[in-house]
Design brief:
By secondary structure, the chain is of the alpha+beta class. Helix content is 46%, strand content 16%. It folds into 2 domains: 44 residues, no CATH class; 134 residues, no CATH class. The strands form 3 sheets. It has a 3-stranded antiparallel beta sheet. Strands 4-5-6 form a 3-stranded mixed beta sheet. Strands 7-8 form a two-stranded antiparallel sheet. The protein starts with a helix and ends with a helix. InterPro entries: AbiEi_C, AbiEi_N.
Length: 189
């Protein structure tokens, strides 16, 4: 259990504990004895584990399953693009999850391996996918343009890659992303 927890900032799910042989009775025993800290329903943490800025992302991904990926405005914040500070954690999951609460904003969709980066215990969309997601969202054009400008200035993406990505988006999202790229390129030069 410790190996899994170490890879996930000390967190692990009841299902993960069950997979390695801890029955639900054994899980309750360890939580009652203080060997494990119950963080949420079906989520535990090793005691005295140091907190980290990424803890909320680990918890969100563990709560929603192994295919959950931090995305949209939250991914902008992770990649340090724009001055976004989303009130909710944006997470993209494959179809079927409709859970909404005060902490999570869930987006339905698949995120293939090429569109995500694996972090310790959680995943985040790549810069390219993040900008495409934001272009498809209700975020302001100014917000999107600022993020694109910073990504291009930091050389983490190229205009060509963003324009190629735009061709696979809806007309509205493609237009928004193309406008952001054109404006950002003009401002950078």
């Amino acid at each position: 259990m410790e190996g899994t927890a170490f890879r996930q900032h000390g967190f692990f799910t009841a299902a993960q504990a069950l997979d390695v042989g801890y029955s639900y009775q054994a899980q309750k025993y360890h939580a009652d004895r203080g060997n494990w800290v119950r963080v949420d329903r079906g989520l535990f943490r090793l005691p005295n584990w140091p907190t980290s800025a990424d803890d909320e992302y680990v918890r969100a991904c563990l709560r929603l399953g192994r295919d959950a990926v931090i995305s949209h405005e939250t991914a902008l914040a992770v990649h340090d693009l724009s001055d976004t500070n989303p009130a909710r954690i944006n997470v993209t999951v494959p179809g079927g999850r409709r859970e909404q609460n005060g902490i999570l904003s869930i987006h339905e969709g698949a995120v293939p391996p090429g569109d995500r980066e694996d972090r310790d215990g959680w995943r985040v969309t790549t810069v390219e996918r993040t900008l495409a997601d934001v272009a498809s969202s209700t975020s302001s054009q100014e917000h999107l343009t600022q993020a694109v400008r910073e990504a291009l200035a930091n050389e983490v993406i190229t205009p060509r890659r963003l324009r190629n990505r735009a061709s696979g988006l809806s007309d509205r999202a493609a237009l928004r992303l193309e406008r952001a790229v054109s404006t950002a390129v003009e401002e950078i030069q």
